[in-house]
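Researcher: We're reviewing a set of sequences before deciding which ones to prioritize for further study. For each one, I'd like a predicted 3D structure that I can look through quickly. This is Homoserine O-acetyltransferase. If possible, include the structure in token form so it fits the rest of the review sheet.
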Amino acid sequence: MTSDQRFGLQRHVRLTQPLALDGGAVLPAVEIAYETYGALNADASNAILICHALTMDQHVASKHPITGKPGWWEQMVGSGRPIDTDRYFVICANVLGSCMGSSGPASIDPATGAPYAMAFPVITIRDMVRAQAMLLDHLGIARLMAVVGGSMGGMQALSWPATYPERVASAVVIASTARHSAQNIAFHEVGRQAVMADPNWRGGAYYGHTPPTAGLAVARMAAHITYLSEAGLTEKFGRKLQERDTKTFGFDADFQVESYLRHQGISFTDRFDANAYLYITRAMDYFDLAEEHGGRLADAFKGNATRFCLISFDTDWLYPTAESRSIVHALNAAGAAASFVELKSPFGHDAFLLDVPEMNRVIDGFLRAVETPSPLKGRGL
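Model: Here's the predicted structure for Homoserine O-acetyltransferase, in token form for your review sheet.
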């Protein structure tokens, strides 16, 4: 293991052991960008891994270096927050295949000296989890007190105890699923086709050239609609028009909701890589935890001592409550300890990213119940 560079809480490590991927390829080394908060206690029993969603990154509770915006889950992670950095050692790593410092399509291929682009091997959610396990080995953490994630992060949080049952004491899975439906895959394919239809995509070889920002912006707009609810959009925008001196018909952003979506798309291109979007959405589409364990979801958790907490939202139509219930049924069939709650929110799938007091109380209570008493002060990695 080499090249461990530390800049406050922002860290980067190059792990030189090879990583065998589900698709059959092998990465000779893995770069992982990550952040940590709090201190690891003396027996390394207070570590919590936060797994991020598709368009998020390792900057879970610190200012984003590109956008300057606050961390994407600051209401959840921090001193006195539900994931309390005074009590827990919190790790959040940029996933394999992403573009914020971890190995992905924009990384340099040692065989050519140029960015991998579309030569980067296909990855899966389980490959992301294996890379995270390598990071924990590097940090000297044999067992997690908890793994926590929402949306794609919830997929990782489910995959962790299924892949490494002995390494996870508890898992919090929020607004997620055990496999992608045909509708989920269809929405992602629309986004991927928007990226690949952009003439600047160049078959993925756009590094050093103008990137396919128009296609990526459209992909983000289409995906963002699935993160919201009809009630939330109606309450916030309805059919309100932009304020203008004169009313003209045409294809400018006449409606406020149009302007909102265009802003979401354009701002996204400032911080994300188009090829990474293709790879990560494909990894989500491939995810089917039951298929990985013989076709029966309960077998993924058979004999598992991990404690599970599942949370869904009543207006989430991307990963509706029925998806969480099917996971709970599988956990019950496997004899695993599981608790489940559906929360009310008008904000759809994105509710897990917002300050929802009921969710905060559920997560705080669950973590306190599974916490192993141990000295709070220790070594900060």
